[in-house]
Amino acid sequence: MGPLPRAPSRDRNAEAGRPRRAGMVAADLHVHTTNSDGRLSLPEVLAAARAADLEAVAVTDHDRLHPDLAAPVETRDGLTVVHGVELKVETDTQRLDLLGYGARATPALRAELERLQTDRVERGRAIVEGLEAHLGLDLDVAIEPGLGRPAIARAVADHPETDYTVQAVFDEFIADGRPLFVPRSVTPVETGRDLLAEACEFVGLAHPLRYEDPGAALALAADLDALEVYYPYDGEPDLAPVRRAADRHDLLVTGGSDAHDDDLGRAGLDAADWAAVRERLPAPR
Length: 285
Prior knowledge:
By secondary structure, the protein is α/β, with parallel strands linked by helices. The protein contains 8 helices and 9 strands. The protein folds into 2 domains: 27-104 and 200-279, TIM Barrel; 113-174, no CATH class. It has helices spanning 42-51, 107-135, 149-158, 166-174, 189-199, 214-220, 240-248, 271-279, and strands spanning 27-31, 56-62, 73-76, 79-90, 95-101, 187-188, 202-205, 226-230, 252-255. Strands 1, 2, 3, 4, 5, 6, 7, 8 and 9 form a 9-stranded mixed β-sheet that branches. The radius of gyration is 19 Å and the shape is globular.
């Protein structure tokens, strides 16, 4: 894969909007809604972003564009809302997540996302049926586009006849390699990169230290535009390799909480880094 064209370097100390304290998160660029596996609707996510005193939020649902975001970037009651997407892709050795920002629904991307959603629905149905048969329960789960394993695990945890936590459902039943795990179709990495490059203003690699082989993931980032440097990893991982990769390949720095609930702003960009990202995006509508 060859590198994507990049805009000229920007001054990351440019004026970034209303004043904020040094180090404060101004933009959370990795958030999910009920459109995929988040717990909040889009209006609820935007309310949570305002409550966290964010200047900007990116909606990056899994393998799905949000139907209520009509433009790549919008302003809603003073909050900048970036339309994004998180697309899982497959390399020769592992699966990674790409983040596209400033997304538009091109015909090619729409077709691939529809294919993936059909596969997600069938996979979700198989997981639910497997859990119901194993546990002897009827789970209140809507089999619909956007269904993911977290929603299924929450249905088990919320059922009055179980004492499972969401994590326990994953660990015992539906995580990779567990007895009720069902694999799903994943887009090849080159196909995914090209689809997002056509449809989005820029494409980055999500949470590089979460993969089985972070070194290989960071090597792939050389063919992208951006790298998620700021992320709420468990513990205190060494971020130096991530920062070095961003500097070495002149990648745009992104960051976000990966929130599936209302806990926005746990990680993200400060005002200076957000200013650099904002200059790569079209003007809000």
